[in-house]
Amino acid sequence: MMRLIFLLFFSLLYSGLQAQGPKRELRGVWVATVQNIDWPSPRNYDGAKQKTEFIDLLNSHQKTGINALFVQIRTASDALYAKSAEPWTTYLSGKQGQAPSPYYDPLEFMIDQTHARGMEFHAWLNLNRASMSSRSLLSSEHVARKHPEWLLTYNGQLLFDFGIPAARHYIAGLVRNIILNYDVDGIHFDDYFYPYPDPKSTLNDEDTYIKYRLAGESKADWRRRNTSALIQEISETIRKTNPKIKFGISPFGIWRHKTSDPVNGMPTVKGLQSYDDLYADTDHWLKQGWLDYIAPQLYWDTAHRVAPFKPLADWWNAHSYGKPVYFGMASYHLGDMWSNKEMKKQVEISRSMSQGEGLIFYSSTSLTKNMKGFRDTLRSNYFAHPALLPTTPWLDSIAPHAPTQVFLANKKLTWQAGEESDDKDPVAYYVVYRIPKQDKKYLEDPRNIVYKGKATELFLEQDDLKPGYGFTVTALDRLHNESRPSAVAWIKPVSSD
Q1: Architecture of domain 404-490 in this structure
Q2: pTM assigned to the model
Q3: b or e along 298-321 (b: 16 or more beta carbons within 10 Å of the residue's beta carbon)?
Q4: pLDDT of 309-359, one tens digit each?
Q5: Residue 493 vs residues 153, 410, 489: alpha-carbon distances, Å
Q6: Which candidate in 24, 43, 334, 488 could, as Cys together with 372 as Cys, close a disulfide (CB 3.0–4.6 Å)?
Q7: Does domain 18-382 have CATH number 3.20.20.80?
Q8: What is the domain partition of the chain in residue ranges?
Q9: Between helices 309-318 and 340-351, what is the axis angle to 10°?
């Protein structure tokens, strides 16, 4: 009987910890702009309404507990931002090359609004797509008008020929331009490298292959080398331009089958393979240190016959080579065949992984619409307490100095910035912890976080002001390195006089 009680207690404790969540976790969402999937609304093309829609979207995600947005700013050699060599996207105004009206810079606006809410903004770009349709009405500024020799036609679309060095350099240049002109936290690419196979289409890159192949190199190996060269050039461009910008990829969830690669392959035997069919060797990119994280699209349920979620998650966890894994989840399936229970299983599996440091949901609309009540589940359970974003010590490991002059009086907590950090990085925000007097591990428990923001004062609720408790403050930089805690401001016992 006692053993049963103990097991029940342990089970409840574990369940509570799962729901509570870790102190550090990326909680992201993809915001798709292509074909107006998530934003802006296809119902209007008014700049002022676009702003309102984005603020509503942001506020919804903030309330859910999301702390990182991955926003698609380049869909098909076009731009959702002003400072670009490529034309304005059609998804803003209804016409390619036409600026939003009333005029504004959507990327600048989105970054400012996202950062104001203490969230990261990652610029998501499509790599290979030049046009959704070869028959599209393309602007005179479009790359198809200026450099048609860089493009191939496949399945009715215009795609970049990655075998041409100038085309790869062009894409890397776009990334450099974004980093120089916008305050993004990261650069992000999805799963579109070489196109998904279509039995009715042929990718005619034979001339480029003959021109640039190495002696004895197969076309498949040549294509993989092209994709790897592009990823390497982008990675090096980011490091040279701003070494503290994060770079990540969200590949198709199956790398290779065990039958294709008995040594390193995944426990799958059927379905598309990113390595063989899309010519994307993500395993190699991680080994080379070109990426700061990997976000595999694990868009299958836990009971899937061919590609169940957990074995795939296990493989990516084991092949991250020390970099964090942000598990990509198909929350859009809540709109058709998945249950809330299925999504909960995937969250818990992801959190059980040793390299699992985050979750990214596709896409934004599935959460803002609260499909199957899953947003409510996140708010009340898995994201009930705030989470700081993971650190990236290979980019920066120097923390700010602790805040000073912490003072509590009349329900108001105040503090001052500490000395300038050793690497001169400014303080990005502060975190206030409410701590029990006897709790020596209070910094590890997100339930103790009562504030996260840029202010140096906090007005406390009466419920927070219980005798035996105190408050301490830490300072964090842009890459979330956390200082030592400040001195504690203890709540004084109520006088008996």
Answers
A1: Sandwich (2.60)
A2: 0.94
A3: bbbbbeeeebbbbebbebbbebbe
A4: 999 999 999 999 999 999 999 999 999 999 999 999 999 999 999 999 999
A5: 75, 14, 13
A6: 334
A7: yes
A8: 18-382, 404-490
A9: 20
